[in-house]
Amino acid sequence: MLTRTRLILFVTTALILGLIFGTVGTTQLYEQHERQQAMAATLLAQKYQKEGRVDEAVGLLYQATANEPDFYGSYLLLGDIYATLGKHGLAAVMYKESLDRIDKSGKEYSRILSEGGLEHDSEAIRKKLDRSTLLSSSQAKGPER
Questions:
Q1: What share of the chain is helix, strand, coil (3-state, %, to 5)?
Q2: Does residue 94 contact residue 76 with C-beta atoms inside 8 Å?
Q3: Which residues have CB under 8 Å from 81's CB, separation 6+?
């Protein structure tokens, strides 16, 4: 009787552990897939930006930030687009979001984005943030009389 109880306990424990580890593996695969989709969307948005399809690029980037909020590249490109459009307040917000997430995104994504022409250096992004903040505050003051 004791042996049968031990066997049932062993099998039950093994099944539960298998389910737990299977779920963890699936979750990790899903998260990696989400990051890859966000990176692909960001690179496609960069292409759209260069083609002058800015509205499509912005829409794609907002979708990428909703799907993978920890991926810094989407926020960085949004900052660049807004800075180009003269919307320095929005650019500053996006650069700050990018800086807040850069360490969470991983080195592999930083390397790939840098090959695509996007900054991956915190200091370079911080300079963009400072510039946009300065320009935004001068816009808010309006023209001097």
A1: 85, 0, 15
A2: yes
A3: 49, 54, 57, 58, 61
Q: Are 70 and 32 in contact (CB under 8 A)?
A: no
* Structure letter (DSSP) for residue 70: T
**Residue 70 CA: distances (Å) to CA of 7, 11, 106, 116:** 44, 39, 10, 19
Q: CA-CA distances (angstroms) from residue 49 to 13, 73, 127?
A: 54, 14, 22
Encoded tokens for 55: 């509205």
pLDDT single digits (tens) 42-75: 889 999 999 999 999 999 999 999 988 888 889 9
Which residue in the block uniquely carries the two structure tokens 């907002």?
62
* Structural fold of domain 2-140: 1.25.40
pTM comes to 0.69
Residue 79: which of 94, 69, 64, 59 has the closest Cα?
94
